[in-house]
């Protein structure tokens, strides 16, 4: 997450932080969260989350997004 955020800021400039924060806030509101603390660790396997329920789909989604973003036109 840190690497992706840093990469995004380097690619789009520091002003992109506003867009990232706005997107996070909008997502949190849609999901009913009022703070980052409520979100932090929700998918941690230490909290009992089943890693197989989100690991592979998340990986595939990331690969598909990267292909759309970085593949030659």
Structure description:
- The chain is mostly helical.
- It has one domain.
- Helix content is 70%, strand content 0%.
- The chain is built from 4 helices and no strands.
- It has helices at 2-12, 16-31, 36-39, 51-70.
- The protein is globular and about 40 Å long.
- The two termini are 27 Å apart.
- The model has no long low-confidence stretch (mean pLDDT 84).
The structural domain count equals: 1
Give, in order, the helices and strands.
HHHH
* Structure class: mainly alpha
Helical coverage, percent range: 55-70%
Descriptive terms for the model:
73 residues, mainly alpha, 4 helices, globular
Question: Quick recap of the structure?
Answer:
The protein has 73 residues and is mainly α. It contains four helices and no strands. The mean pLDDT is 84.
What is the fold's blueprint, element by element?
Layout: H1 2-12, H2 16-31, H3 36-39, H4 51-70
């Amino acid at each position: 997450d840190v690497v992706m955020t840093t990469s995004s800021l380097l690619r789009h400039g520091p002003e992109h932080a506003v867009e990232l924060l706005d997107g996070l806030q909008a997502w949190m509101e849609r999901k009913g969260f009022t703070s980052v603390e409520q979100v932090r660790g929700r998918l941690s396997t230490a909290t009992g989350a089943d890693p197989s329920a989100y690991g592979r789909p998340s990986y595939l989604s990331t690969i598909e997004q990267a292909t759309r973003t970085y593949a030659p036109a």
